[in-house]
Design goal:
- It is a single chain.
- The protein is elongated, with a radius of gyration of 14 Å.
- A four-stranded antiparallel sheet has the order 2-3-1-4, with helices on one face.
- The chain is an alpha+beta fold.
- It has a single domain, classed as Alpha-Beta Plaits.
- The protein contains four helices and four strands.
- A hairpin with a 6-residue loop joins strand 2 and strand 3.
- It starts with a strand and ends with a helix.
Length: 92
Amino acid sequence: MPVLGLVIVLDDDDDSTQRRVSGALASAPDLELGEAAAHRLPVVLESSSARMAEERIDSLRCVPGVAGVDVVYADFQDLLTRSPRAAAREDV
């Protein structure tokens, strides 16, 4: 299961933008939100595959109020311990 540390960059550091984006993401079971600082929101993303993680990051970029998503940490260790064939089947 890939685990990624992300920093979501907000359009501005206005409290309403922080609340709106945090509210939109708060109920997502694959995300753990940190405390926003200025116009940045730290997030941990857990995904079932590398492809799903990439798609999820793309979807986060489309959330209103989000200016960008930076990947600051990525752990794919469990994917490395599986055979390439098994990992490819799970990535579909």
